[in-house]
Amino acid sequence: MRTRQLIFVSLLSCTATAVQAQQTQQATASSPAQLASVPALNGPTVLPDYKIGSQDTLTIEVFGVPELSQTAVQVDNAGTIAMPLIGRVSAVGLTTGELSQRIAKQLDNKFVKNPIVTVAVKDAASQKITVDGSVTQPGVYEIPAHTTLTQAVSLAKGPDNVADIHSVSIVRNGASGRTVQTYDLDAIHDGKATDPLVEANDEIVVDTSGSRKFVRDFGSVLGLLTYWHP
Predict the structure, then answer these.
(1) pTM for this entry
(2) Could you give the 3-state DSSP secondary structure of residue 212?
(3) What percent of the chain has pLDDT over 90?
């Protein structure tokens, strides 16, 4: 009986040594520079500049460790995701590359030596903007990555008949506070100014032209006077 136990322990030790050697070989062959080439699960979109937001759905692959990989994990309202072994990880405001590094570092500290982690966006639910002011159809719109200001205004069916296209603002709430940048759509269309990119949670405000509003209101009053005094 004692001999059988010694044989079993010896076999278990050899197996563990072999597994560790295989993991070391994989880690050596796959450097961090190869991170972008590792295929993501289920073919989600890799958006290197995209900042993760709450309610986004992500896929996370820990190369060679399927038990730690997830095909769909949602960022909660607190801005975190749940990961096996390491628990909740803050994700909001990070790019997919930055979150990959954060997860890899926490895994490397205790559980997996030199892990290769790939994070991709499966559903960018937080990519929404508000378009308001003198536009045909104000509202909240979902946007893809790299949406420009003119494209954002087009989502609202363009400026209305009293819009001041020389004064269109992007209102943004960032880490440094609330900022407002004003642009001239006419100059952008003529190629005299760049078409800036908008970000998730931006508010696009198209100002009202005072002169156009006066003409519109004056026309309405004139129409009423004509109606009452033929």
Answers:
(1) 0.50
(2) helix
(3) 53
